[in-house]
Amino acid sequence: MGEEGRKLRYAIIGAGMAGILAAIKLKQRGEQFTVFEKATKIGGTWRENRYPGLTCDVPAHAYTYSFEPYPEWRSYYATGAEIQTYFEMVAEKYGIMPAIRFGCEVSGLVYDDSRATWTLTLASDEKVEADVVIVASGVLHHPRLPEIEGLDSFAGPAFHTARWDDSAPIEGANVGLIGCGSTGVQIVTAINKVVNKLVHFQRSPQWIMPVPQFDYTDEDRAGFRKDPALMDAIRYSDDYIGAIIRFTDAITDIDGPKMAEIEEICRQNLETSVRDPELREKLRPDYRAACKRLIYSWGYYEEVQHPAVHVETGRIARVEPQGVRMEDGTFHPLDTLVLATGFQADRFIRPATVSGQGGATLDEAWKVRPSAHYAMTIPGFPNFFMLNGPTGPVGNFSLIDIAERQWDYIDQLIEELRAGRARAVVPTAEAFADYEQRRIDAARKTIFASGCSSWYLDDEGVPASWPWSYDAFAEAMAKPVMSEFEFAS
Ligand code: NAP
Question: What's the CATH architecture for 151-206+292-339?
Answer without folding.
Answer: 3-Layer(bba) Sandwich (3.50)
